[in-house]
Write a structure and sequence with these properties.
By secondary structure, the protein is mainly alpha-helical. The chain is built from 13 helices and 3 strands, in the order ααβαααβαααβααααα. 72% of the residues lie in helices and 3% in strands.
Length: 338
Amino acid sequence: MSSKNKPLNADKTTDITNNSSSPDSIKEWSNKSVVTEFILLGLSSSQELQLFLFFIFSVFYGAAVLGNILIILTVITDSRLHSPMYFLLSNLSFIDVCQATFATPKMIADFLSSHKTISFQGCMSQIFFLHVFGGSEMVLLVAMAYDRYIAICKPLHYMTIMSRKVCAVLVGLSWAIGILHSASHLVFTVNLPFCGPNKVDNFFCDLPLVIKLACLDTYILEILVLTNSGLLSLICFLLLLISYTIILATVHRQASGGTSKALSTLSAHVTVVILFFGPLIFIYIWPFESFPIDKFISVFFTVFTPFLNPMIYTLRNKDVKEAMRKLRNRHVGSKLDF
């Protein structure tokens, strides 16, 4: 869920660097932290390009937030969409709103500023929310795959298995795992000593970049971070792969009239999974290397994925499009009557 660009300024004093990254070492140097803010280098140093990016990302951010909010309102107001699949979809839209908001508004504002800084507390908050929303979305995608598996492979028991209680548990579990995943990163990051270098080569505080700025040997911590994130990503991806393989095999064997609708719904889910996990696979193939594309991957996660998800689900789902049309006509008609 994080890119791994190398900081431009990573000089550390020799006596500190030679220390281990054990908890005792971290506590020993934590009172030597003097960094109160970090400098975000952003996406570009060109003033003209930053102005262009300001307008571009403002449009994408606004479209992502409005699109996902529209899906949430549509699911809430249309009784025909009060089903487990759309309940999970509305929760995915809520996570996408959060994912788009934790860093993008500051990035947009920083395009108009020559000095891009963030406080230490703000930096830690960005790290926390990034992993909460990213981890929660991964688990929720697995829950949505499980929902489609039950609907297609066990249709007669669908409403019994996917009860309201089960749906609430699945959503609660996704948030719990996301919070636990993020807290496991943050618990040691906040106690790291930062005593000099404070330039983050990205538009938000990315965990691997911030860890590299600490004034001690962080190799073990970097391994722990990559193992934690990589393990969660791998487990979720394998569960999704198994689920969709079984579903596709079942759909292939069926010859009913609902097969095309099932394939249409399933293709939307698979597309979202590919868009979400594709960049992750690239990240973990070269976990310790830095590439220019890393910043694009960060933008993709925080801006483009939340923007694309509502488009994918609405353009491929007749029920959602019809519900949105009715919602629009209802409000437009009420205004005309007024």
